[in-house]
Task: structure prediction
Amino acid sequence: MNHKKLAGSTAAVAILFCVVAIPAQAAPETSSQTGSSTSNIAPRDAGLFESKIDNPHFSSTVHGNVNVHGGWKKSTTFRATRAKVTTRLYAKKWGVWVLVASSTATVAPGFGSEKWVPAARKCKAHDNHQFMGTVGVDIIGYADPPGVVQSNVVTLACSPW
Result:
């Protein structure tokens, strides 16, 4: 038996195993699993929670600000009570999305001012610019997949620079 050939075959099997193992680990992100929530189940994929974001809009409380709000909603069977929510506001400048505001907080699920995480930017001028928001939710105490949810793109008469 040729030792080099055996080593090459072993390496090929190891590479094949890794290629097969990576999609298997990524599969929960696209699966529609249901079941009880345990620390090894990705809650978003099991339908146990949903990331929520509104569209960028002018603030109703702070004149001249553009806001976006992020949060999360859970199913009645999911036991998680807190999540670290990161909300980001982007504006398009010369065809590139630029981060103009970001905020992170740990909040309970649901809706209402105390449960939404806002990101806001003061307008410097009133030119039309495109805005969008993203929200990332990390459920405290549970393994959940990375990723963000994006709002619609909205054109507002606000220049953040």
Observations:
- Residues 59 and 156 are 12 Å apart (CA to CA).
- Confidence is low (pLDDT under 50) at residues 1-40.
- The chain has two domains: 1-30, 49-159.
